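Final report, Chapter 2: Outcomes

The project's central promise was a pipeline that accepts a single protein chain and returns its three-dimensional structure in a standardized token representation, suitable for archiving and comparison. That pipeline is now operational. To close this chapter, we reproduce one record exactly as it appears in the project archive, with the input sequence first and the structure output second.
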Amino acid sequence: MAAECCGGDFLEWVVPDNSASVFGLLDHPADLVRAAAVSRTWRRFVIENDLSKSLCVRLFPEVATIAAAAEVTRSPPSPPVSQSDSERAYRIYSNLAGALVSSSPKDSVGCVLRCVGASSTDVFPNETMVHTLHERGLVNFRPSYWSSRGADNPDEPESLTYRLNSDICIVDEIRVQPFKAFFQYGNPIYSSKTVRFRMGHYKLPRGSESFVTNDDENKMVNADKDYMWTYTSPEFPMLQENVLQSFKLPRPVLCIGGVVMIELLGRVQKQGADDKYYICVCHVEVIGRSLSPLFMVDISDPGGYSILKYLPGAKNLSAEDMVQYDTKDSLEWQYFGARYRQMNHIAVLNALLMQVHFMHEDDVGWVLQDGLLQ
């Protein structure tokens, strides 16, 4: 596309709004970068009108919730290069757009890192939500599942909140398996009527996050006021079947901040022992693909909004290289590198722990019922 036609630049002949509409037809970041390279006038127009971020928002509307973007260099540039905030934003969002379109669904994997909290737990820790990370039906010869508290009202909702293994990732689908209480008469299945998903981030800085442990149910973490939800899915009907049910989102979603809440809406099964409704889940998977460590998220905005951090130095580094750093590295690079190392360490530890003492319900003919759902 030529910058000039009939002796002039078309940007000089067309009003800015129409020009922005024309550039808005470019739906691939490579096309926008090529347009910005045509001339200084075109580059200035692309940068000053924030067209790279606008493209990201068209690709993934959740990007609109990002309050600011900053670049984290491994070491301070020498000599320092003067650059406007608009130019930096253009470079950051152009690279983000490139990462978004180059990410392939075939690279998606399970990406739950830790359990943040459940809206209720019937018997803690025997029925903790940590059990939903296990793929097998039994752990240490006991059924592995989370159970809500009983309710008289079948419309009383529940929720399970998880931290993903990436600050920013693309989520395609979420899988949930209701629990079948094979130790109860009739083998009841405690599913919910429908399920809905929220994605976003904790409003407070990273160091203030808390998680479920064997000693701490982490009840206070589920207050909605503590989260910034950037996406809410439609409701999906859930089958009353003891199978891993896949809920494909209407479109891929950019989870900014790495928190996913699974809302379990409505109850269908009463327990005979107390005539109350329960919801029980034995396994959860969030399927997605990470954009970290190239992109990380910080929550330092006073309003609890996210700040996108771009680490260009991580582009050509392997995961092993990323977890190592030099004393000459900038403090901010060391901070995000340490966070990435911590997430990798927990992910590896979880993978090792989940390989121990796992059995399927079909592998044994009996189970002790003391302390189970009663």
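Archive annotation: The two ends are 71 Å apart (CA to CA).
This record, like all others produced under the grant, will remain available to the consortium after the project formally closes.
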